[in-house]
Design a protein that fits this description.
The protein is α/β, with parallel strands linked by helices. It folds into 2 domains: 34 residues; 316 residues, Ribonuclease Z/Hydroxyacylglutathione hydrolase-like (Metallo-beta-lactamase, Chain A, 4-Layer Sandwich). Helix content is 31%, strand content 23%. The strands form 2 sheets. A 7-stranded mixed sheet has the order 6-5-4-3-2-1-14. A 7-stranded mixed sheet has the order 7-8-9-10-11-12-13, with helices on one face. Helix 8 links the parallel strand 11 and strand 12. Helix 2 crosses helix 3 and helix 7 crosses helix 8. It binds zinc ion (ZN).
């Protein structure tokens, strides 16, 4: 100020307000300074997003290579009702059904475009859509851990709860579905698709387990973790092992999204999590992943990472919904700079 007379100082002030400040705002908002997201490689059609009690909106996600219509199906809580909702939302407009097929478009999509099922665990909210649709489905493979396959084989497709549409278990076998047991940490090809997958065991209220899948396609990946509790409460290192496995994929932006469940809003007592996550535990686990990346030399590696928040239980009390609460709680403690996405049934997400 010493060097300027009053008029000069006024000019500087106007220069700052009218020119420098807008330039600064423009630069901060411009993509040059924002986290540049990786090129989108996958398409997800959300057939079901919730974790109960709404029986027409339960975990079920179709995944395709971007702009392809050949899907693998991650869990199948609400399958056919989800296809119908996505169809009415115009998400399958590019799929053309031969006029002489004699099928409803939704049924044709179920039969022709859903190529395989990868099931995290056999709880009803992850398989009921598959069971309900089975009479109108076509021959496919169901992938799951030995525990998941055995539960479905022994307790569902057994002619007592439902006819046996599979190729193992109670006689008579209708052989529509082929069971494929997947071994933890062993990559496998999803039959009839360009997808690979590798499974990891997670704990879903000890001793019950669930399965996470690392899905690959031409060098790009997504990670699907459905129902699980945090390592600290489940007294395991299962999630930590997954984080160790994917840290370089995160850092190299080859991991395009993590699907992760968050059943309840906070506060939630540890003994009332029942093998699930709440925002505080979700952030804690993702912060652990961030730390592992940093330990390997990749700092702030989670900035802009897509985390699709699944399995929210809508709750039965009036007032603020669980979705709103969870969204707020995650954003308030989002120090890693994650791009949290709360999926809606009948929407398409590209990542
Ligand atoms: Zn479950």
């Amino acid at each position: 100020m010493y060097f300027f007379n009053y008029r000069g100082a006024g000019m500087i002030k106007r220069f700052v307000i009218l020119i420098l400040f807008p330039i600064l705002v423009f630069l901060l908002a411009s993509p040059v300074y924002a986290q540049v997201p990786p090129e989108t490689k996958f398409t997800c059609i959300v057939l079901g997003a919730g974790g109960g009690i709404e029986d027409d909106n339960l975990s079920c996600f179709l995944i395709a290579e971007k702009d392809s219509s050949d899907f693998i199906c991650l869990d199948a809580g609400s399958l056919y009702s989800g296809i119908k909702k996505a169809e009415s939302a115009g998400l399958f407009n590019e799929i053309l059904i031969p006029e002489n097929s004699g099928l409803l478009k939704s049924a044709a999509i179920l039969q022709n475009n859903v190529k395989a099922y990868l099931i995290s665990h056999a709880h009803l909210d992850h398989i009921s859509g598959l069971v309900q649709a089975s009479p109108s489905d076509t021959q496919k493979t169901i992938y799951g851990s030995s525990a998941t396959i055995n539960f479905i084989k022994d307790n569902i497709f057994n002619w007592q709860i439902w006819p046996n549409f599979a190729d193992e278990g109670s006689e008579f076998q209708l052989k529509k579905y082929h069971y494929q047991v997947v071994e933890p940490n062993v990559e496998f090809q999803v039959t009839g698709t360009s997808f690979t997958a590798k499974s990891f065991t997670v704990s879903h209220q000890e001793p019950y387990t669930s399965t996470a899948f690392l899905i690959g396609n031409n060098g790009n990946f997504i990670l699907y973790i459905c129902d699980t509790g945090p390592d600290a409460i489940e007294k395991t290192k299962n999630l930590n092992t997954i984080w160790e496995n994917i840290s370089t994929l995160v850092a190299s932006k080859k991991l395009h999204a993590i699907f992760m469940e968050c059943s309840y809003p906070d506060p939630r007592k540890a003994n009332e999590l029942f093998g699930h996550l709440s925002p505080v535990w979700m952030i804690s686990e993702l912060t652990n992943l961030e730390g592992i990346c940093a330990k390997n030399g990749f700092h702030q590696a989670l900035q802009g990472l897509n985390v699709i928040v699944t399995g929210i239980k809508p709750g039965i009390k009036s007032g603020e919904t669980s979705v709103e609460l969870i969204k707020k709680q995650l954003s308030e403690s989002n120090n890693p700079g994650i791009n949290f996405i709360i999926p809606l049934q009948g929407e398409r997400i590209d990542f």
